[in-house]
Amino acid sequence: MSEIVTLGASQLTAGFRQRTLSPVEVMCAVLDRVTKLDPVVNAFCALDEEGAMSAASEAERRWMRGEPCGPLDGVPVSVKDLVAVAGLPTRHGSWTTSPDREMADAPAVARLRRAGAIPFGKTTTSEFGNKIVTDCPLTGATRNPWDTRLSPGGSSGGSAVAVALGMGPLSLATDGGGSIRIPACWSGVVGFKPTFGLVPAGSATSWTALSTLGPMARNVPDAALMLDAMTHETLNGGSVTGGWSRYAGMLDDSIAGLRIAYCAAPAGISVKSPIAECVGRQASTFAALGTRVDETEVVPLADFYGDGRMHSIQWSVFFAQRVRHMEEADRTLLDPDLKALADAGAQVNTATFADALFARHALAASMETFFQHHDLLLTPTFHCGPPPVSGLPAHLRQAPVLTAWCNQAGLPAISVPCGFAGDLPVGLQIIGPRGSDALVLRAARAYELARGDFPAPTGELQLPGDMEIAP
pTM here? Predict the structure, then answer.
């Protein structure tokens, strides 16, 4: 991997400020990287090379004048293809959508642009973000950067792979049940799901009432910097330490004295031994940082995993609603997994759906009580490794058990690489109460510093001879 594409956002802007790097040089390196690697991993479904190079030239002129427009000026960012980017189509991974270019950015993208970031391409997703692997009839399957025979997870798999392989340091993704954290875990990057509603989604992106937008990056400071940009309507100058910086500016504060709960696996969840052992070793890291770590069961989750299928019920109903007005000709174009999900949702009666919503409210209230006694919760991000490309095995068709409940309760949660199970990365999930986004990021950064640098995949990729990317 060339040196430029290994640099994070803050390193890039430092180079721009010192004039040892230029935005044009960086954008060229990123686009060259995409040209080299994307034919193998299929992380991108659309690029705006001309627009990106023009924006990079403008950013370069601003840096040469010493007048950056914001803290991300000239930094490339990719955007999951569920989120609108002006000048590019939003296909949602579906043949049923329009190929016309968007006239305006989604709110979060607009804020990233105002901070100087350059949205240069759209990343792959499962159709309408319906499942935890990234394959769909429109764009085919996306591959894991550590082993191309495997899935990177989903539905933000394209974003995770792009970041992992140096095809841009930042990506904007969405998470409706684990869609940021799961591919971050399986691809070895950082993925943060903020408190519900913190990042403006716009009506087109929040239709499930469970999904929220969040950053993916190779390190926690870059994720925090991106979150700062997306949660502020105006930015004054290029300093990342100004008064507007609620997240990046507090990362170095101590976490000593925090009360941290560690749950290796909620009741009834079988976590693969290598993953459990890898995550279990991280508790001692937090103890060494001066926190009080208590291994405990998370009692409020018992109903979620027991008889309360709250996430699966809501998810299926929302997708039934999403496709109910489609013409029959369009319905025949849908991913069979999505059709099965929507058909299941169409069979849910009003009482069952209302029960699921009540269970959601009860879980959120119970977790508020839980976090009166604990500041943060540590769990594995996922209980097993990634499945083969393509398809979704039967044992992974239920709601992702360690991540989806955070969406139900609206909690902030981050996945940070914490080691390997065999040759594949493992994710540590750090969860906090609603509104504790800064604390979650601070704890993740403290852990990241204690852990040390995490390796990146080599980029020496080969497409398995018996498999194709094209649908």
Answer: 0.95
